[in-house]
Amino acid sequence: MKRLKISRETKSGYLFILPLVIILAVFLAYPILKAALMSVQYWKMTKPSPDGHYFVGVENYVNVFQDEFFWNSARVTVLYMVVTVAFRFILGFGTALTLNTKFRGCGLARALIIIPWAVPEVVACLVWILMYDKDYGIINSMLTGMGVLSGNVGWLLDKNVALPAAMAVNIWKGFPFVAIMLLAGLQGIDQEMYEAATVDGATRLQKLRYITWPSLKPVSMVVFLLLIIWTLKDYAIAYLLAKGGPARATEILTIFVQQTAFKYFDFGKASAVGMLMLLASCIFTGLYFRALNKGEKA
Amino acid sequence: MKKSLGLKIGVVVAAVLVCLFAIFPFIWMISVSFKPASEVYAAPTLFPKAPTLDGYKAMLSTTGAFSFTTWLRNSVIVSLCTTLFSLIIATLGAYGISRFHFKGRSALSYIILTTQVIPGALIVVPMYVIMGNMNLLDNMFGLILAYTTFTVPFCTWMMKGYFDSISPTIDEAAMVDGANRFQVFSRIVLPLSLPGLAATTIFAFISGWNEYVFASVLLRSYSNWTLPIGIASFQGQYDTNWGTLMAGAVMITVPVVIIFWLLQKHLVAGMTAGAVKG
């Protein structure tokens, strides 16, 4: 009797997860397997082979590694990731600390700070393209007005400044997420700890170092790694701003894949780069889980 | 006392600076949306000298292939369907993972988290081929399926966090009273997790509303486009009319910003709950 009951329970459990498993299998697991397969097959869409999509071994991967533009993209990606993650985190952390203090209008400030996060990427990029405009952009107008610049700069047209310009948009769009998550973490800290520390004569800096930071560490670790993973995946911002240009200065790996697939129509090579990115993501996920487990033990 | 006053001023100054940085592009977008073309192509001023609604009128009266209202309708359909499908699949799945001890349960919850790291760039190529094989290219239903797939894992993760915080003894009590599992789920547990549902709904809706990359790859004909691709196509033309373009941008953005403001607390709670529990 008891056994029957358990198996029925288990059965209804499976029914609950069935749609989830199906959609994950059909539209996530299958495409990944398909990408893995395509990465070792011939998929040059502009030159269809009479043999169809035949097996080519590691040729696509070799093509990738011999492509100087791939290495350019890898370099740009790492730079883009390091700078934007660091700045989003620092700016977000500073914002969270600032907005955690009570002052008149802090509620308003918390509401305003969300805006960049809420604005759709396409809209954000369009507005920044307009602000970056060489002749009529507000940024050039302000900087020359203040005497910082002597002449107008084509922010997204000059290969020396396009990458930093794209990074600025990414940082602007991304720091509110960090600020809001950390602010939620800050508000969860027991105020009595600060009071006790004040009684014991701790300085502000000591409180930050010995109470705030350790309490925020679990949330920070999660936020930090999410930032890394999301940045590796992201391409709407860089793509919309400059399509990877000028002279491939903003061509992060995601754009490289997109261009290889839908401009040069080599699906095999594109899949190979995608698989390499998945590998990089998995390494970061491994670190993520290790950090999470450590956080739980601590 | 003096030191604390100095600190307070410092905090307020920092807050003002950071807020200005955050909202300036937003304000600029609104300002330009009210400017006539002659003012856009001139030395920029913060406020329009001769504010006009022409941009909004022009954007709303676009017809034929490049029609704002058609894209708006498409975006609403795609986002609503994505939300509906994601919610059904995610709440059922999250309840299953939260309440049942089946084989592969922990593996499944790990897989759900792992999906967060799959680069879209990896999926987009095979997805294009698969959708082509299924005759779902240039088809809104294909796009909805793709979006649902991307939003479901995160929605499940958030909902599981909420379900975990509701004691299973409530379920057991209801089952003793004769309710079956599905009744417990739909009539007791779901109503108890309304804040979580709200957060998940916004997340799914906004994901669909804002998405650009997959829409631009999977949709071809203008009449199937969603707002993000539609509006982006205005830029880069030789005679880009920025006033009109920004009017469209304002109309896309304002609803999203309002939703965020209304429901941000739930969204943050949902995300942190998932983040802390893993």
CATH architecture of chain A: Orthogonal Bundle
CATH superfamily grouping of the largest domain in chain B = MetI-like
Arithmetic mean pLDDT of chain A: 85
Write the H/E string of chain A, N to C. HHHHHHHHHHHHH
Task: Characterize the main sheet of chain A.
Answer: none
Please provide a written account of the structure.
The complex is a heterodimer of chains A (about 300) and B (about 280). By secondary structure, chain A is mostly helical. Chain A has one domain (about 65-295): MetI-like fold (Orthogonal Bundle), CATH 1.10.3720. Helix content of chain A is about 75%, strand content about 0%. Chain A contains 13 helices and no strands. Chain A starts with a helix and ends with a helix. The model of chain A has no long low-confidence stretch (mean pLDDT about 85). Chain B has 13 helices and no strands. Chain B has two domains: about 1-50, no CATH class; about 60-275, MetI-like (MetI-like fold). Chain B is an all-alpha fold. Chain B has helices at about 1-35, 35-40, 55-60, 70-100, 105-115, 120-135, 140-165, 170-175, 180-190, 195-210, 215-220, 225-235, 240-275. Chain B is about 75% helix and about 0% strand. The chains are: A mainly alpha (about 300), B mainly alpha (about 280). The interface between A and B is large, with 97 and 95 residues.
